[in-house]
Design goal:
mainly beta; single chain; Rubrerythrin, domain 2
Amino acid sequence: MVTLSMAKVQTHIIKIKDKKSGLILYTRKNKKQNPDKLSLKKYNKVTRKHELFTEAKK
C-alpha cells in the first residue's frame, strides 16, 4: 500500500480594504509568487464604482 502525502496550500485568504469607504473584501493570494502587497481594482457596493482595494492586515 502506497500513501501519498498532501501538498501544502500555496494560496492564502487575505483581506483587502478600500481607503475611501472602509469596505472590506476577501480574496486569495499566492504569497510565494507575489510577496508584495496586493492592490486590486474591484467594484465597491457602497460607492457603486470601481475602486482600488489594497491588502490590509488580518
